[in-house]
Amino acid sequence: MPWSSDGKNGGPWKPSGQGPWGQAPNPQPPDLEEWLRRGQEKLKQWLPGGGIGGRSLLALALIGVLLWLLSGFYAVGTNEVGLNMIFGRYTGKTASGLNYNMPFPIGSVEKLQVTNRNTTNIGFVLRPDLRNSGALTQVDLPEESLMLASDQNIADVKFVVIWQIDPARPEDYAFNVATQRETVKAVAESAMREVIGRTKIQQILTAGRKVIEPEVQELMQKILNSYKAGVLVLQVQLQSVEPPEQVIAAFRDVIAAQQDAERLRNEAQAYANRVVPTARGKAAAILQEAEGYRLQTVAEATGQASRFDQVYAQYKNAPTVTRERIYIETMQHVLAATSKVIIDGTNGAGVIPYLPLPQLAPKASDGAQQ
Hints:
Tetrahydropterin Synthase, Chain A
């Protein structure tokens, strides 16, 4: 039998006039006066003398004020800093432990986790993988990662910024910037675009990556300090630096060609390092031989000149004797290596003329053949 709220039939669960869960279908609003009367009766039971007098009200007020003042105590964690405010105005910061500030609504406390490291991804986001629960998948954001280099080439730059709240100036982080994380991300993207914009694409893809990270970190810190954002940039990590997907194959070919050119250059340098010292050694040996020959020739010439001077000095003293002596020494030098025949100078007596026919015959035959 269906349940009905007409008051005639209450259905199988409850008596007539009630719904299936025990409520009346049209409940009446509570009586406010009855509720206040019951509250006053209960309060009288707790008050001394069973009535509400001036002393009772004063005691209640003192207890309420005491409880309100005690509510101003608060604890700050080891990784936190508390910022005390009175009527919304910053009055100071507190370290970890038990601290006190005027309770609400006069005072308030904001706690910041200053030692926690925060990570901001630029150029990509990590989202849950629907096919693998618990895993994250990377989704590229081309509007953030595509940047223009100084040579008008486009680079796809994805990087991560690790930062934390400045423990020395947490009030700047809390009060000077409204959207802190969005500000850090915007400053990081702007700094990276500036550094990429004054760097050539080849440097970005190769050795320049080690220079880009600290340069971007320094520029980010300078901008955030000018904002008084109360943020410390701990590290900038390049995740990937590649050309756009449409031209990545051509860029890889260019890089391979550059690597081949570098390899050939290194081989040529090694060959030069091997050949040049040998050539220099040979050149040094030739120079040393020439120097030795020069010294020898000069020494011989100097000796001959000295000997001539000595002979000339003797010639001036005794010209006839010296001239005869020179003649004898010259003839001795000339005739030492030749065959000699000595003939007595007695008008040729005793000398038989001899015609060397055997020696002349071959010469004559040789002349006939020619």
